[in-house]
Design brief:
alpha+beta, hydrolase, EC 3.4.16.4, 20 strands, Beta-lactamase, cell wall biogenesis/degradation, Peptidoglycan synthesis regulatory factor (PBP3), Domain 2, Beta-lactam/transpept-like, cell shape
Length: 421
């Protein structure tokens, strides 16, 4: 009888453990990464730059009209610096007017000698992907196509892009820009960036010019009486997940680039992500392949991940106390200076996020004020370090959580004596 009771208790215990194990696995179940049918791809958090997915993300490739994001970024920089204004007029040259009606190129018609506002040309550049409009903006900013190309490359370096190269404001091959083509440059030369660098450019654009979304979310617009139809087939798509909405950013298409797309989306108006798909199938002008692959990537990001909030002034597991040898108290707890969101697999808890100093922090001296810099920390989950775009991204500033006064002379003397033994 006793053996039966023991057996039943053991059996019940086994099934309880099994049930708990199944529930734990269900909570932390990892949804496999999707197979993205494109040459390169990446998905990142728009604020922090945390990488959520990547495929050949660091290989520079032709980007075609995605280049126009850099053109608009520079235009906005010029406006912020009061070197340009939205209502400034841009006079169109004969070369630009001819290019604006060239067969096979996306454009809005421009009239030679006529002046158009910077605002209207930016709208045409982003909504219709108008090549001549983008080139006109470049000329307005720098005076010549050559000088604007140099400015594009200089700006790229400033924001941390070092492996790509820009030849013109539109993304056309050098030959297709006609009389605006750069001399001593191959006719087939085309702007090059990696998926990672495009994501970095898009992130900088959204951070410095958030209202660009007001333009890129448009399905159509008008340009001096001409109706412009946008190319983003994901606008208004409600099949991406609960509350997920796409509002940008830019397509790019050429023989070398294939069909490419930089996407921007939010879930219920929050937690914006940026996706880049380069070199998707391109059988025709209406081939939806790049949008199908982008939708697949966006759905996976929001379905497989949860954003975890690390609030300002909270500690991180793994970050030890900072030393203050001459303070009234000799240690102080470092905390996160600003709020930070971390994307993790569903079921992950904040306790699983650990931090480690990038460099061992120097010992602090007292008196130490609350909020004093201690060091930068990198994060990991289950032993895997989180990855970010940008050289300085992913480093959280840690600061002291309280002020510490200096110990009196006799206490400091006694500590010094103790250190001798």
């Amino acid at each position: 009888m006793k053996h039966r009771v023991r057996f039943l208790i053991a059996l019940v215990g086994f099934f309880c453990v099994l049930a708990l194990s199944v529930n734990a696995d269900a909570k932390t179940k990892v949804i496999p990464e999707p197979t993205i049918a494109a040459k390169s791809a990446i998905a990142v958090d728009a604020d922090s730059g945390q990488i959520l997915y990547q495929k050949n993300a660091n290989q520079p490739r032709a980007i075609a009209s995605i280049s126009k994001l850099m053109t608009v970024y520079i235009v906005h920089q010029q406006i912020k610096a009061n070197k340009l204004a939205w209502n400034d007029k841009v006079k169109i040259s004969a070369e630009l007017a001819k290019l604006s009606t060239a067969s096979g190129l996306t454009n809005v018609p421009l009239t030679a000698g006529k002046a158009y506002s910077v605002r209207q040309l930016v709208n045409a550049t982003l909504v219709e992907s108008a090549n001549a409009a983008a080139l006109a903006l470049g000329q307005k900013v720098a005076g010549t196509a050559t000088r604007f190309a140099a400015l594009m490359n200089k700006t790229a370096h400033q924001i941390g892009i070092h492996d790509g190269h820009f030849y013109n404001a539109s993304g056309l091959t050098n030959k297709l820009t006609g009389k605006l083509a750069l001399k001593h440059v191959n006719a087939s030369a085309e702007n090059l960036l990696s998926a990672s660098d495009i994501a970095l450019l898009a992130q900088k654009l959204l951070q410095t010019f958030p209202r660009v979304i007001d333009i890129t979310k448009k399905t159509s617009s008008t340009f001096y009486g001409t109706t412009m139809t946008g190319h983003n087939q994901l606008l208004g798509n409600h099949n991406l997940g609960q509350g997920v909405r796409v509002d940008g950013l830019k397509t790019g298409t050429s023989d070398k680039a294939g069909a490419s797309f930089v996407g921007s989306a939010t879930a219920n108006g929050h937690h914006r992500i940026i996706t880049v798909v380069l070199g998707a199938r391109n059988k025709s002008a209406s081939d939806p392949a790049r949008f199908i692959q982008t939708a697949k990537l966006m759905k996976w990001v929001y379905a497989a991940h949860q954003p975890i909030k690390l609030s300002a002034k909270t500690g991180i597991t793994g970050i030890g106390k900072a030393q203050i040898p001459d303070g009234k108290q000799t240690t102080v707890l470092p905390v996160v200076k600003t709020t930070h969101w971390v994307w993790a697999n569903n079921g992950t808890s904040a306790k699983q996020i650990r931090g480690q100093y990038v460099k061992k922090p120097a010992k602090l001296t007292s008196p130490t004020k609350k909020g004093t810099y201690v060091g930068y920390a990198q994060l990991s989950i289950n032993g895997k370090r989180l990855q970010y775009i940008g050289h300085s991204a992913g480093k959280l500033m840690m600061v002291t959580n309280q002020s510490v006064k200096k110990a009196n002379f006799f206490v400091r003397l006694w500590r010094a004596i103790l250190r001798l033994f």
